[in-house]
Amino acid sequence: MGNTKKSLLASGLAVLASAALLMGSTFAWFTDSVSNTGNVIQSGDLEIQVTAYRLENGKWGSPILDYGDNWNPLIEAENWEPGQYGAVLLKVRNQGSLAAKVDLDFRITDSTNNLEDALWFNLQSFTSAYGSASAGAAEEKLLFEDAASRPSDSADATCMNEIEAASLPTVTQPQGSDSWYAYYVLEYGMYTSAGNEYQNGTFGLDFTVLATQAPVEEDGFGDSTYDENAEFATYNVATEDEFKAALADAKDGDVIALSSAITVDEPIVVDKAVTINGNGADFTTSVENSFALEIPNGVGGVTIKNCDIAGSDSASTASARPMGIVVRPGAGDVTIEGCTFTGAAAQLGHAVWIDGGNTGSVTITGCETSRPINLSGYNATVSNVTIAGNTFTNTFGVTEVTLSGALENVSIRNNSFGWGGIARVHADGANNFSFTNVVIADNTGSNVNITVDAAVQELYDAALANGGIVVENNVRG
Fold it and tell me: How crowded is residue 258: how many other Cβ atoms within 10 Å of its Cβ?
């Protein structure tokens, strides 16, 4: 149920403010043109309807955006000056068969002359069982409608430069809620103390109404927690170009969700702290000996989940290496969960390759792979790696985890291995060999042996003797 995302049409808010100061007077007069280019509504298997209103003479006017169609500019203003004020109201209704979690996301798209520093906002939300009776409640939420109460500076109201971090409690809407609404009231304006430095500035803002399914008993088949981890998708992508564009536009914390299979013709460098949710879709690299995804130096907080990462179908020769994910030196925290790694010539490719020198933790859990995981401490230490609860299905007789060089704080527990064995301690890391707090325990499989290359046998035996590596409770079966 949580794997399908559906995008609904709305608009992105663009605010353009130009400032013209009347010199030689005690008053500062500003002019402004503010236009709306579209707000975006994203949802799972939901039918979200949004109606938007503008405050006009103290009352909410006719709908500007009505159910995602026939929308007009949401904010229009002219002749702005310090103290100028506006407000908009969004009314969200869930018409779908699934309960929904609803939230807002804001993104600054343009700014000159630091104009956002001269603007302020106030954002509030509430819910009501009666849509038409709630206009008065929305008006009661207005804090700054009275000109005498207009904010002078950031001590009075939150500066617009902080709107991307704006946070409201997530609203849960029941399914098929014909008369149940979530409301969002956005007040905005220019500080009364705005000065000359903001002349001729511009400011752009996009906002997104996000929705995904909610953990509610009535749609949970008797299990009220089955979809409690459903997350908001900031971007839904169906092609390589859409994926690259989403990644380029993304900010830390965003979610990029695949809505169909994607084939990439080069490694995708994940340079933001984002979540990539494959929703079970194929993520295939068409290039032999090439990784599909790369986490580079200086990037952490990356989660890759529910992806079926496949190697090239043409990788059928002994020299072809279908690759999955590579974690480069200097990369921060990376979580890989619920993924499947497949591909031809699986004995030579790698599901995950971790280069030494990572600065964060790497967690691989709940995955199924026919390709090995490589901890490559040839030149620098691989540290803080957890490989737990995975199923290794390699039938080529090659060991499932490759250990080489310097390793520290590595845990390989509670996995199921094929008949190739648990791990190979590789000779390539002989010159940098050092095992510290490496634990291989509580695994099962048709072969739970650890193969050690002759060049590092004595080093490995010494690590066993001094407790640098602990191997215990691995059961064949």
Answer: 27
Q: How long a stretch of residues is the chain?
A: 477
221 in any annotated domain: no
Cα 418 from Cα 398, distance rounded (Å): 9
DSSP 210: E
Residue 159 belongs to what H/E stretch?
Answer: strand 158-159
Q: Give, in degrees to the nearest 5, the angle at Cα 452 between 446 and 454.
A: 145
- 199 and 282 belong to one structural domain: no
pLDDT tens-digit profile, the chain (477 residues): 333 333 322 333 333 333 332 223 233 333 333 334 444 444 444 566 778 888 888 888 777 765 554 456 676 666 677 898 989 888 887 766 666 677 777 888 788 888 889 999 999 888 776 555 455 677 778 888 888 999 999 999 999 999 888 877 666 666 655 567 788 889 999 999 998 888 878 787 777 777 666 655 444 444 444 444 555 667 888 888 999 999 998 888 888 988 888 888 888 999 999 999 988 777 877 666 678 899 999 999 999 999 988 765 444 444 445 578 999 999 999 999 999 987 654 445 788 999 999 999 999 999 999 888 999 998 999 999 999 999 998 755 566 899 999 999 999 999 999 877 899 999 988 889 999 999 999 999 988 999 999 999 999 999 999 999 999 999 997
Name the residue among 229, 259, 220 with its Cα closest to residue 42.
259
Q: Are residues 283 and 208 in the same domain?
A: no
Q: What total number of domains does the chain contain?
A: 2
Asked if 206 and 40 count as a contact pair (C-beta separation under 8 A), the reply is: yes
Task: DSSP letter for 245, please.
Answer: H
Nearest CA-CA partner of 14 in 145, 275, 207:
207
Say if residue 264 is in the same domain as residue 300.
yes
Instruction: Report the alpha-carbon distance of residue 324 to residue 387 in Å, rounded.
Output: 16
Last residue of a domain, one of 150, 178, 212: 212
Give the whole-angstrom CA distance, residue 159 versus residue 172: 28
Phi, psi (5° rounding) for residue 283? -125, 100
Report residue 231 as tokens.
């997350």
Q: Residue 243 and residue 223: Cα distance in Å, rounded?
A: 33
CATH number, domain of 274, equals 2.160.20
Shared domain check, 351 and 250: yes
CA atoms within 13 A on the CB side of 388: 12
Q: Beta strand pairing status for 235-237 and 268-269?
A: unpaired
Q: What is the DSSP string of 105-146?
A: EEEEEEEETTGGGGEEEEEEEEEES-SGGGHHHHHHT-SS-S
Query: Domain boundary residue among 212, 244, 272?
Result: 212
Domain hosting 240: range is 235-476
